[in-house]
Amino acid sequence: MGGVDAQNGETSCSFLLQQLQQIWDEVGETDEDRDKMLLQIDQECLDVYNRKVDQAVKSRAHLLQALGDAKVEFSRLLSALGEKTYDGIPEKNSGSIKEQLAAIAPALEKLWKQKDERVKEFLDVQSQIEKISSEIAGTSEQVESPKVDESDLSLKKLDEFHAQLQDLQKEKSERLHQVLELVSTIHDLCAVLSIDFFSTVNEVHPSLNDSTGVQSKSISNDTLSSLARTVLALEEDKKQRLQKLQELATQLIDLWNLMDTTEEERSLFDHVTCNISASVDGVSIPGALALDLIEQAEVEVERLDHLKASRMKEIAFKKQAVLEEILVCAHIEIDSEASQHKIMELIDSRNIEPTDLLVDMDNQIVKAKEEADSRKEILDKVEKWMAACEEESWLEDYNRDQNRYNASRGAHLNLKRAEKARILVGKIPALVDSLIAKTRAWEQDRDTIFTYDGVPLLAMLDEYMMLRQDREEEKRRLRDQKKFHEQIKEQETPFGSTPSAARPLGTKKVVGPRANGSGNRRLSLNSHQNGSRSTTKDGKRDLSRMVAPVNYVAISKDDADSHISGTEHIPSTP
């Protein structure tokens, strides 16, 4: 900021600052306050400069925008006129912005004038085209002034319009061909849908009736568009009818399969089911999609639905029987009575669609089959184990028979069976170990307890092994006791005394899962899995808590662990 002499009535920054210093001295302002005021004065000065700079920037931006718009307009005009270059374009791209604007203005004026002349040429040729087109359309209305596409005013486009004038006669022939094709398509669609053809085409235009000559038929844009819309509407109607008919056909087949309908009854609706997988274009037989045919199929579906409701319980019980057979064969416990009661409640309450109920039962059957397949290998080993246990039980009885070596009838057969039984019994520990390993792997893979007729299999195997161990200990004890009595007898015999007969001690017998030929395959359980044992008041185990839920393939592992309990090793049949 330059200073000005204060005596001439003007002030400068230095003079004003000097005055301000004098005033501060008189007032007694502190240095800190003076610094703050000076900083404030500097900031205000900067604000003034910034505003001026902003105004200058905006002014420059406006000029640049105007220059850019001019260049864009120049390029647009060149493009519209189909010109790649222009002789009048200024070569000077330097200098100030205002100089550049002044240089491009004359070129723009020339291009605008050239554009106006070209537009007049387009208007002239397009007006002629519109006039001939109105004759082809068969209208006598006043032709409106055509709209010129100012984005393309090139000579090439103008030549195209001139060529179009020569093609109008050819276009008439092409339009007539299109009309005839559309009318033929409408005829075929009306035949399939059983719709009156003549009334349909008369709604489009009366000249389309077969009574008029070919050359007299309307070939206007409205006629072509109306014909195209009619074809689309008929095709959409055909598509919807076919979809409806296919849905009805699917329902009929499902209901027939559900109720075992005879082939004779099904053949009455062959004209419906024959198009169940047909495409829209594949249906061309007259009357194939008539409304009365669809209504007939709807009535039949409704009749079968009412019939299905009355037979639903019978069908549901058949599926339940199939499910129960799968579960029984897989030794999965199921409460048949409760299942049937639940089915009755669901059907009577009508809270579920019968079809949904059957689908749910089909899903249960599929899951039950999958579960049975996953259990097959283990169940086969269980069968082998049970057979071995039966032989073990028979061998125990055979070994206690004092007359087993007598020459009685069939003694040699029993001897051979005993030899085989000893071999089979010797394999039981390895078989049980393999069965335990596979059962645990199965449970870990599914996080579910493997039950056998409602009883956890591992618990059965654990108790069997414990009973077997107890039996071995009992045998050792009896052998020691026998040896002790023999020693006493040897000591007493030299003195002529007769030893007192020792009361025979019975052995603890390991009862296998089929002991005594019982068909019930449950063992009494112990609960080494959870480390606790629970009994009822009379000392017997409560197995009622181990009954599997109705229609349930497996119980969770945590629930089964809490249910396995017992206090003593009491042999029983599983």
TrEMBL record:
Keywords annotated in UniProt: Cytoplasm, Cytoskeleton, Microtubule, Nucleus, Phosphoprotein
GO biological process, one term: cytokinesis by cell plate formation
Composition-biased stretches (Basic and acidic residues): 535-544
UniProt feature, compositional bias: Polar residues: 517-534
Gene3D superfamilies assigned to the protein according to its UniProt record, in alphabetical order: 1.20.58.1520
Pfam families found in the cross-reference section: MAP65_ASE1
Subcellular location: Cytoplasm, Cytoskeleton; Nucleus
Region (Disordered): 486-574
Coiled coil: none
GO annotation, cellular component aspect: cytoplasm; microtubule; nucleus; spindle
GO molecular function: microtubule binding
Family: Belongs to the MAP65/ASE1 family.
Protein name per its UniProtKB record: Microtubule-associated protein MAP65-1a
Organism: Solanum bulbocastanum (Wild potato)
Lineage: Eukaryota, Viridiplantae, Streptophyta, Embryophyta, Tracheophyta
